[in-house]
Amino acid sequence: MNIYLHELRAYRKSTITWTCSLIAVIVLFLSLFPSVSKDFAEFSSILEGYPEGVRKALGIQIETFGTLLGFYMYIFMYITLCGAIQAMVLGTSILSKEMREKTADFLLTKPVTRTKIVTSKLLAAVTSLVITCVIYIVAAYLMALQVKTVDFDVSTFLLISLTLLFIQLMFLAIGFIISVVFSKIKAVLSVSLGTVFAFFVIGMIVAVDGEGVKRYFSPFKYFSGTYMLEHASYEASYVIAAIAIIVISIAASYFIYTKKDVHAV
């Protein structure tokens, strides 16, 4: 528990910063919705001038862009990008920082098992992400109530918003196993940004070329906003894939970390 609380305190400033950043982004974007809704005919004609491939890559659906949920679905793509970076940085640094700061030997001499160390650190990271997600959803919902022009489906809004946490957990797990396999990562931010943006670009390419099996190559495409608007639910196959990525990555991280030699230098 001491390790868990220590890690929570260590992530406190980062969590506050990312949470405030996500709130600022959603407030800024949603504040534009009344203007978009009012002059949608003009916006629609402008959007129709863009090539279809560009619209798909940017996640723009002209049919729903003038509605609050459709507009939110578009801007939410960038919210998930920011959230993924937060999670990836957490996952990548969660264990590798002990190597960078040369505290690994000191930590492992304490009367705790490696499994408990990993579990405490992982729970602290998950807690930070949950706090960020909950506060973001509350802020986004309150902002949506302020800018709405007509009533919207709250359950669908929350369904879309919750995908932030799922995507964050996937990138946390990916970053976690990277931190275990490559323990001496010095440029955590560079690795995190590179990985997240690579998956983001892959997601944009997938959106242009088509969907189907290709969507499995980018976590950003596991939760289709269009599908959620139409069915008010997630696609079961992609939820299973997301869970598999998280479980396999975490399980592999535990196995590797408990077996490998850990050095402070």
Automatic annotation (TrEMBL):
Record keywords, A-Z: Membrane, Transmembrane, Transmembrane helix
What residues form the membrane-spanning segments?
15-33, 71-95, 122-144, 156-181, 188-208, 236-257
Pfam families, per database record: ABC2_membrane_2
What protein name is recorded for this chain? ABC transporter permease subunit
Q: Which organism is it from?
A: Paenibacillus plantarum
